[in-house]
Amino acid sequence: MTAKYALVCTGSRPAAPPVEGLAEMDYLTSENMFELERAPRSLLIIGGGPIGIEMAQAMNRLGVKTNVLQRAARILERDEPTLAGILLERLRTEGVEVQLGAELVSAGQEGGEKVLRGRLGGEDVTWRADEILVAAGRTPNIEALRLESAGVRTGPRGIMVDDKLKTSARWVYAAGDCAGRFLFTHSAGAEAVTALRNMFFPGAASAAKTVPWTTFTDPELAHVGMTADEARTRIGDDNVCVYEWELGHSDRARAEAATEGRIIAITDSKFKVLGAHILAPAAGEMIAQFTLAVNRGFRLTPDFGNLVQVYPTFSTSISQLAAEATYGQLQKPFLLTLRRINSFLSRT
């Protein structure tokens, strides 16, 4: 078979951590879990990322005793820590056990139970359950492609591509999980469109540098752009502003008894939106406004401050957040003037 171009879009598969004995076990993943005919009585989940946390809440609500084992010090490491912390407390309140800093050593089976052994807080611990769900990331499907024979370079995350999704072999493009940029279905679809455009149509299109994502828990946790810590590292602490708005101020949230949530917007000193993070029932829908803002360089004020949202919706809170930022912007010179007047009066 010959062609002018080739597009590699072979996706990825669930990865498993290097835990002794795990590879020999019959464990669950996001791909075979939905083949179960009945829910297990208990479940151990390896990994506190989006898949692990989504399935932990879902299985717990189905009556499954669920325990999440997360090696890191917090869940959802790529999301804004404050909102991930609120979600963690929600899960624990519902009955999900979450062990942070859990280091796994070995896996096995004893009787009818599956067993994980490791360390937690410096002590040896054994965890037991009917089933184990491995949710520890994904691995690109590229091993069998003999990419090196075509001069296609690969790296730890998969096939290496430029911003046009072209590989080191100029006639070969790659899109989606196998290219390792963003491991999301919506990103893969957008990348495939971009790659095809660059192959056959005049003018080169660049793949999106910033894409949103949502962890589909209840409430949803949506993310686009930088977190506050990432922004401070990138442009300096003095150049970063962080604005927060509690969902409890929303009439829609109060009407639906869904006030446990928050919107966090990160801007530079000129109010250009660098990132946004939303914990709310409709966060996956609301984040689209901020995605446009990050990609187009919009400002929180006045661009969002002048935007009229439909009432009553959760999105009303976005305009309220922008109004609060605008008020703070106007308040600063006013307060500075007051301080100067007070200083003058105290001297006289």
Report on the architecture of this protein:
There is one protein chain. The chain is about 30% helix and about 25% strand. It is of the alpha/beta class and about 350 residues long. It has three domains: about 5-15 and about 140-200, FAD/NAD(P)-binding domain (3-Layer(bba) Sandwich), CATH 3.50.50.60; about 15-135, FAD/NAD(P)-binding domain (3-Layer(bba) Sandwich), CATH 3.50.50.60; about 215-335, FAD/NAD-linked reductase, C-terminal dimerisation domain (Enolase-like, domain 1, 2-Layer Sandwich). It has helices at about 50-60, 80-95, 185-200, 230-235, 250-255, 285-295, 300-305, 315-345; strands spanning about 5-10, 10-15, 40-45, 65-70, 95-100, 105-110, 115-120, 125-130, 130-135, 140, 155, 160, 170-175, 215, 220-225, 240-245, 260-270, 275-280. A five-stranded antiparallel beta sheet has the order 14-15-18-17-16, with helices on both faces. A four-stranded parallel beta sheet has the order 5-4-3-9, covered by helices on one side. A hairpin with a 2-residue loop joins β11 (about 155) and β12. The mean pLDDT is about 95. The chain is built from eight helices and 18 strands.
